[in-house]
Structure formats: C-alpha cells, structure tokens
UniProtKB/TrEMBL annotation:
This is GNAT family N-acetyltransferase. Signal peptide: none annotated. Keywords: Acyltransferase, Transferase. It comes from Lacticaseibacillus baoqingensis. Belongs to the acetyltransferase family. RimJ subfamily.
Length: 172
C-alpha cells in the first residue's frame, strides 16, 4: 500500500524501519493506550515487521522521511464466523513526540478514504474507554460510538479491560 497525504505517507514496512518502529513501540505511553505489547529489542521489532508484511495488515506512517507510527487494517467476521467483506477495522499507534499535530488524523483520513473507495461499507475502531485522545480523534473523523464490550481474555495484556467500538460510514 502507498497512500500520500499532505504531510504523511502510508506505506508497507521494511526491515530497515526496525529502529524507528522500536523507538515508539517500546514506549509504554504509546503501547498501553493502543493495547500493544511493548517491543524491547530490534530483533523483536524486525520479527513484528515481518509479521505485518506477511499479513498485509499494518503499515508505516512516515513523516519527514521517518517512520513515526503505524496504522493497521484488519478483517472483521460475521456472527457465523465467516469473513465480513463489507467492513474493516482499523488500529493505530503514534510516537509520543508527534501527538497533537494532526498527523494521525491525516493518516486515518487517508486510510478511510482508501477503504471506502474500495467499496468498504463501514470502518470500525476499538479503543479503551479511558483513551480520550483516540476517542476524540475518531469523533473528529466522524466515527460514532456503538457499544462497549469486554476485551477477550487472550488479548488483555495484564488485567480485564473493556473496549469501546466506534463506526464510520461512507457518508458520515
């Protein structure tokens, strides 16, 4: 994938991105609100980037020639377990030094426009209810709160948590 915005570029990760990825993926202030396991060494960072490449799921957010975050696009499933080809879910993380500059808002807008252009009918995002920065970003992008559910036990990193789900439709 390659999406070009006014300030950010969204592209596939490469192994050479490992140092930049490690710089923010090892920061608990970034990882905990995003529900990510902290990455503590370059070898783990490279393995994670390889996994992203194989799954075609997570993409680098580049600003001023440097990877500053990632945005993922994930499949959703219907209640019967079959893939839902009409919806996607997004998730994201951004290096703390770039918070509050509108860069993630630009990245989310680029990805959402790309998905809607491909015929996706709804985009979902799950956030922890205490992640007010992410909730505000989603609401500014037009996402609407739908419901809150407990995070599955296998995904809770240290203690039971809830996730709030927000949805964006093509015409708001």
């Amino acid at each position: 994938m390659r999406l070009v915005g006014q300030r950010v570029l969204i592209r596939d990760f490469t192994l050479t991105d490992a140092p930049d990825y490690l710089a923010y993926a090892g920061d608990l202030a970034v990882c905990q609100p995003a529900g990510m396991q902290a990455v503590l060494d370059e070898q783990t960072a490279k393995k994670t980037l390889q996994r992203f490449a194989l799954a075609h799921s997570d993409f680098a957010i580049v600003y001023a020639g440097r990877v500053i975050g990632n945005i993922g696009i994930y499949p959703r499933v219907l209640p019967n377990g079959a893939p839902d080809l009409t919806t996607k879910e997004i998730g994201y993380a951004l290096a703390q030094a770039y918070w509050g500059q509108g860069l993630m808002a630009e990245a989310v807008a680029l990805v959402c426009a790309h998905l809607f252009a491909q015929g996706i009918q709804a985009i979902w995002a799950a956030v922890f209810p205490d992640n007010q920065r992410s909730i505000a970003l989603l609401q500014r992008q037009g996402f609407c709160y739908q419901f809150t559910v407990p995070l599955p036990a296998g995904l809770a990193l240290d203690a039971p948590r809830d996730e709030a789900y927000y949805r964006l439709l093509p015409n708001g």
